[in-house]
Amino acid sequence: MAHERVTIGTNDGACPCQLFTPAEGEGPWPAVIVYMDAGGIRPAISDMSQRLSNAGYLVLLPDLFYRYGPYGPFVPKEVFAGDFRLVLGPLMTTTDNHKAAADTGPLLAYLNTRDDVAGTKVGAVGFCMGSGMAIAAAGTWPDRFAAVASFHGGRLATDEPTSPHLLAPRMEAELYVAAAENDGSYPPSMAERFEAALADAGVRYHAETYPAAHGWMKPDFPVYDHDQAERGWSAMLQLFGRALPARS
Predict the structure, then answer these.
(1) Considering its fold, how many domains does the chain have in total?
(2) What is the pLDDT of residues 1-46, one digit of tens each?
(3) Which 3 state secondary structure label does DSSP give 160?
């Protein structure tokens, strides 16, 4: 098992990243980029990235709050016990879907330099805030993304110019969208709008709603649901196994 720390230059500065390779076997492996939630970089998302890597992927985890500067790591159960917007809001204002998509260019360029990356097509997974970022990245770099998994993402189809659904006509990746029940950031009307955009653009996708709360995939969240998280892991690995085989 290898866990590297690398810094990748972007148009706006230096983005610290963690890179994970499988605990067993030898590369090259197809690459997957993990787009973090608003809780930022912390042990839980690093552990999730290693778990994904152990399934046969080289995983790149960028700190998309790099424009803010040093922070945390945060403990979500403590943050969500109060007004999380006071803690996370200032960091979240430093990035958005378009900025994350722009950051993805240098991330892809970095992956191109590694001889342990198989092929040119990559996968992406995003959680909460990162879901829209992963989808926007796939729409911005359509020739590079084969598959995207979105878990409890919010604001995927809005009237804002950074709304991910606007990039649906450019997407070539297969998309899996896992929504949470009673999620104010992604109500049924928004899901319908998002899925309509995907269908109209001919995007291959599968969408479903989990009987769980927003954030259920994250083991350090107070709403973590082990059974539904394992269901999510199974769906994600099936997607990547189909669209981005571990031995390509």
Answers:
(1) 1
(2) 478 999 999 999 999 999 999 988 888 999 999 999 999 999 999 9
(3) coil
